[in-house]
Design brief:
Blueprint: E1 5-10, H1 15-25, E2 36-41, H2 47-59, E3 65-71, H3 74-78, E4 83-86, H4 102-119, E5 124-127, H5 132-141, E6 151-153, H6 156-170, E7 177-178, E8 181-183, E9 191-193, E10 198-199, E11 202-203, H7 204-207, H8 211-223, H9 225-233, H10 239-253, E12 262-267, E13 280-287, E14 294-296, H11 304-323
Parallel strand pairs: 1-2, 1-4, 2-3, 4-5, 5-6
Antiparallel strand pairs: 7-10, 8-9, 10-11, 12-13, 13-14
The structure holds nicotinamide-adenine-dinucleotide (NAD) and (2S)-2-hydroxybutanedioic acid.
Nicotinamide-adenine-dinucleotide (NAD) binds at residues 10-11, 13-17, 41-43, 46, 87-92, 108, 128-130, 132, 154, 157, 186, 236-238, 241.
Amino acid sequence: MKEPVRVAVTGAAGQIGYSLLFRLASGEVFGEDTPVELNLVELPAAAKVAEGTAMELEDCAFKTLKKINICDTPEKGFDGVNWALLVGSKPRGPGMERNDLIRDNGHIFVGQGKALVRAASNVNVVVVGNPCNTNALIAQHNARDIPPTRFTAMTMLDENRAKFQLAKKAGVDVRELHNLAIWGNHSSTMVPDFENAFIGSRKVTEAIKDRAWLEGEFFTTVQKRGAAIIEARGKSSAASAASACIDQIKNLLKKTPADQWFSMAVASDGNAYDVPPGLIFSFPVRSLGDGKGYEVVKGVQLSEFVRKKIALTTKELLEEREVVKNMLMK
Ligand code: NAD
Ligand code: LMR
């Protein structure tokens, strides 16, 4: 057996936690020969529910699950972890935008950023709690001793949604879809870039000739999918969000082929696509396969249509940054 992988999941007693933890424990992500230690990080009021989840994890008898700790502070929760999956935060309700949550959720990521510095210097951070780009920005600013590249926010759910919609329209298997970049914010301004995506070896725009559908219904379906799910379920997406988080970690653990990419929100270096430095922005990225290294794919050709949409989502992220400026360490 290898060295154990230590994973903290905040919001472990919540909806997403309930799907995510079992898949992390099962061996599916880190491999059948890698022991997993899970830190279930919760508010003290939800610790009892987390205990129930821990009992169920034990009852699965996963061969790879070596240890479960219930942690009621981020310092305990992040102690020596390799991965910190920051899920715990309030979800939006019907009629809200994700950035309506900034004032309720932003402060959580101030404390967690500081706790990460104290407890876990060699960590990969995936922010799921909304608004995830700006929450990742807050956590990263409050954890200045940890390289900024270690902070990511999740747009894999949006990529998965976009791929499925395109596969359905084209009448192909979803595995045929690749290079579907989500640009910008995990919000209703996100840009699902169908123009650079492929179905097998054909461009999506060659396989799907209905440009009005691509620019219209496809775009808004992906941008507003989260709200549609809240409308239908009365609760926000959970199993699909957990599944996307698993996909993001798997993508970071394997080298991305040189002609492919996946979507992840990372700190902009200011040198590409007119995105100001520092913003946590979803780009097409390629993983180096070591769990932490990746590069933003440069030189992707953007049409005027996509450029204009990217400008809008950039503007929104700048506005969000302005709202939280007091939470960002100078
Ligand atoms: P939930 O309400 O079911 O669970 C949230 C849990 O977080 C609760 O158990 C709560 O006690 C816990 N929590 C709150 N503050 C905490 C803190 N400071 N430390 C530790 N735990 C804390 O919510 P959910 O459905 O699991 O969603 C969680 C978040 O994920 C929401 O913000 C939601 O909007 C977001 N989300 C993001 C995506 C994405 O694609 N990025 C997708 C789905 C949901
Ligand atoms: C989603 O995309 O499903 C999540 O971000 C939840 C939400 O508020 O839409």
